[in-house]
Amino acid sequence: MANKTLNEHLLSPGPKRILALDGGGIRGMLTLGYLESMEKMLRERVGGDPDFRLCDYFDLIVGTSTGAIIASGLTLGFSVKKLQGIYKSLAADVFDSNFFRRGLFIPKFSAKPLLEALERNFGDVTLGSEQLRTGLLIITKRLDTGSIWPLHNNPKGKYFNPRKGRTTIPNRDYLLKDIVRASTAAPHYFEPEQIQIANDKYGAFVDGGVSPHNNPSLQALLIATTQGYGFNWPFGEDQLLLTSVGTGHQNFHLDPKDVFDMPAVELAGRSLLSIMEDTNWLQQTILQWVSSSPTSCQIDAEIGHLQKDILGNGQPLISYLRYDVSFEVKWMKDNLGLEMSKQELNSLEKMDKPRNIEQLSEIGKKAASIQIKPAHFPAVFDL
User: What is the pLDDT of residues 12-34, one digit of tens each?
Assistant: First the structure.
């Protein structure tokens, strides 16, 4: 199979394909279960070529936090199997708990093992490196200015190349390991990441999930289609395929009395998580509203799936796929045939439990075998 060049992925005419990957810590292993199935199915589409990688199919791979690790590996041409091996190592090394680190006055985990893993796998690759085989977008959050920094490798981007009379470092020169570390710097778990942004200036970055884009799908669509970012990809049901993969989610079920009895720090933490989940569902609502989507889910009991509510003139703007699981007892039984307790699912929802990694992988594979269908990827998007 003849591989596309980076410029062909980004700048050539024809249908485009986006893969967007959520944040979620160790739950990225669940995402990889989906991607393993996707890689196998798409490889069969090109005759079973053993060298086929997801970066050959997708023209832009987007990730936030743990999704940034996976997106970067895929863009470099890593197989899903290789990334699964990396995650198993990360689980044991990065989320090594320490009695003296509780996440109150100092972060819960040391960033050193994560930095070493990123160095080992990404080395000195920059965002402008020719080693990146397709488009890459990483969501970061610069906390000292309160701004979202979506960093991508499109050479037509405004900040990609040096700018005359400016001392700012062009995006192409950022080290991949540094911006991935920035995107994964979850408050409470890890300390912020410092990145040099100009000759005499540094920025303080925290996890990209501390923004509306822990699920980066809508941001990916915005960047791919608006003029400011230089992609200018066209809309159309047969022109743009957006595939979004989650890390699992869990709905809040609290007794009102328990909310009033919560310590202030717990109330603040749960409120932040609730906002993150709200933005995830808002994005899914908007994307189902503008798309043709065979995987559409019920948003709520009032508006349903939005299948009869296409925005504007009723013509879908994109084709949209969303794959995810719900860590709920009934959902697991009804959709995957798995009998799991509430306690077990509460544990799986945690982002920092290495002991869950094998079970998360199996749940991702099980869900993929049921949810992912070849017909979800129309022939018009074939290579």
Answer: 999 999 999 999 999 999 999 99
* Residue in the block written with tokens 């920035």: 182
Please state the rounded mean pLDDT for residues 234-259.
91
313, two tokens: 């003139």
Please give the single-letter amino acid code of residue 147.
S
Confidence at 96, pLDDT banded by 50, 70, 90: low
Express each pLDDT in 301-351 by its tens digit. Answer: 899 888 888 886 778 999 999 999 999 999 999 999 999 999 999 999 988
Of 62, 379, 71, the closest CA to residue 221 belongs to: 62
- Computed on alpha carbons and rounded to an integer, the radius of gyration of the chain in Å comes to 20
Q: What is each CA distance from 229 to 10, 108, 220, 324, in whole angstroms? A: 12, 36, 11, 29
Q: How far is it, in rounded angstroms, from Cα 185 to Cα 142?
A: 11
Q: How far apart are CA 104 and CA 200, in angstroms?
A: 32
* Residue 100: predicted pLDDT: 39
From CA 266, how far away is CA 161, in angstroms rounded?
44
- From CA 252, how far away is CA 261, in angstroms rounded? 16
